[in-house]
Amino acid sequence: MPQPLQGVKKATYKLGYKYCSRCQLYYYTDLKRCPNCGCLFRQKPRKRKNTAKEINPPPEILQEAETIKVHVKHRGKEVEKK
Description:
The chain has 82 residues and is an alpha+beta fold. The protein contains one helix and four strands; from the N terminus they run E-E-H-E-E. The protein is elongated and about 70 Å long. The termini are far apart.
């Protein structure tokens, strides 16, 4: 069995490591439970750092968005935006 990692600050989940909350160690294994304490492994981070997703709309929607005109009223004055 490979040596467990401790105190690692990089993307270990993407490399295939699993984390034991009780032992506070990362293991590279196919097991579902920690070999030392029997606790279930955590297989993904608790918090996601970047939840924003970039989308690529179809070209038809981009063309339609360019033709839309928006009229905004700001403090009694009407402003036209494209």
